[in-house]
Amino acid sequence: xxxxxxxxxxxxxxxxxxxxxxxxxxxxxxxxxxxxxxxxxxxxxxxxxxxxxxxxxxxxxxxxxxxxxxxxxxxxxxxxxxxxxxxxxxxxxxxxxxxxxxxxxxxxxxxxxxxxxxxxxxxxxxxxxxxxxxxxxxxxxxxxxxxxxxxxxxxxxxxxxxxxxxxxxxxxxxxxxxxxxxxxxxxxxxxxxxxxxxxxxxxxxxxxxxxxxxxxxxxxxxxxxxxxxxxxxxxxxxxxxxxxxxxxxxxxxxxxxxxxxxxxxxxxxxxxxxxxxxxxxxxxxxxxxxxxxxxxxxxxxxxxxxxxxxxxxxxxxxxxxxxxxxxxxxxxxxxxxxxxxxxxxxxxxxxxxxxxxxxxxxxxxxxxxxxxxxxxxxxxxxxxxxxxxxxxxxxxxxxxxxxxxxxxxxxxxxxxxxxxxxxxxxxxxxxxxxxxxxxxxxxxxxxxxxx
Length: 451
Description:
Blueprint: E1 2-5, E2 15-19, E3 22-28, E4 34-38, E5 41-48, E6 54-58, H1 61-64, E7 69-73, E8 78-83, H2 93-108, H3 117-125, H4 130-135, H5 138-155, H6 168-171, E9 183-187, E10 193-196, H7 199-206, E11 210-216, E12 228-236, E13 239-248, H8 253-262, E14 271-274, H9 278-291, E15 296-299, H10 301-314, H11 317-324, H12 333-344, E16 346-348, E17 351-353, H13 359-362, H14 365-369, H15 377-390, H16 397-415, H17 425-432, H18 437-448
Parallel strand pairs: 11-14, 14-15
Antiparallel strand pairs: 1-8, 2-3, 3-4, 4-5, 5-6, 6-7, 7-8, 9-10, 10-13, 11-12, 12-13, 16-17
Helix pairs in contact: 5-16, 8-9
C-alpha cells in the first residue's frame, strides 16, 4: 500500500500541495461533492466507513472499469492508495487548475455581490499560472462572467418559506442566457401555483405538433406548499424539449384547466401525450372542446405497459411463471375482467359498458406507424437528470431556480442541434403486422384462450 502524507489545510487557500513528485488537491465537483486529485487522476467521494475513513473511487470506474481507490484519514492527515489503476488517460493539471479557479470564484460571488464581475475576475486571475491564463481564452472568460451574473441574480432572491413570501418582482429578475425572464406568472385561484417559461419557449410550444405532459413530485421546493412539478414539453426538431414548468399545490381538473388557460393551445397542436391521470385527461378534453380544436389525447405506451405488468404481478402470474415456467396455466378470468373494466370494455345484461379509458387513448398504433414518439420516456429521463443535478429531493427555492436557469440553457443548446429522426423499429415491426384494431383483439383472445 502506498501512503501519502498530506499537510494541514490552509484557510483561505486552495487545499493543494506538492508531496514529493505527487500532486494532491482537494476540491468540489460541479454538484458540490468532494473530490481528490492525485498524480493525474480524479477520485470522487463514495462513503465513510465506521472508522471515520473516507473512501474515494477513481472517476474512470464507470467508463474504464478502473479499480483505483483512495482512503482519506482526516484525523491523521493520511491518504492511502489502495488499488492500482488500469490504463486510461490522466487528468491535465492545467485543466484542474482552471476548474478549481471557476469553483472558487463561483463560491465567492455571494461575499462580493456589490463588486463588478470584471474587477473580481481580474483579481482572481492574478493567482493563476501562465499556462492556465493562456488556456482561458476570451470565450471562456465571457462564459464565467455570465455564470457569475446568474449566481448574483439568484442570490438576490429571498428564499421563501410559504407561498405568500414568493415575490413576483424578484422572480422577474431571474433570466436565462438569452436575457429572457423564465418566470411567467403566479396564480392564486383555484389553488397556489407558479408557472415558469420564457416568451420564446412558450411560442415554440404553441407551434409544436406533439406535446408531452408529465409530472414529478420529488423536485418541488417548499413541499408543504407545492405537491408536484408539471412539465410540458414540445416535440421540436425530432426531440422533446421541456418548455414550461408549473409548480402546483393540487391536482384537480380545475387546477389543470387554469394552467392550460395560461398556456393556450393553437391549431398546430395535433397530439398530447399524457400518463393516465384522470384529472389531467378530463381537463384536456374540456379545453379542447371549448377551443374547438382537433387534438388527439394519447396515453403513454410505457405507462400502459407498466399498469399491465403491475396488475400481473399483483395477481401472482409473474411469480408463478418464474417458479414453474411455461407449464404453468394461470387462471386468467380475473385478468380478463380487469382488462374489460379498465381498458377494453365489457357486456353486462346485453348492455355495453364503456371502459375506464377509451380505446383511442391507449391505442398508439398510428403514432408508431408514423414514426412518432408514443411514450414520455425522454421526459422521465430529463426528470432524473434534473434531480441528479439538484443532489437532493425538495431543494430550496433559490437552488431550484438556479437549476431551472441551467435547464433553460440546455434547451437553447438543443435547439441548435441537428434534427433527430425518431423511429422505434421494434414496435413498428410488431404493430405493422396487425392491420387494424380487431385483428389485434383477436390476437389477445387467442393468447388468453378466451371465447
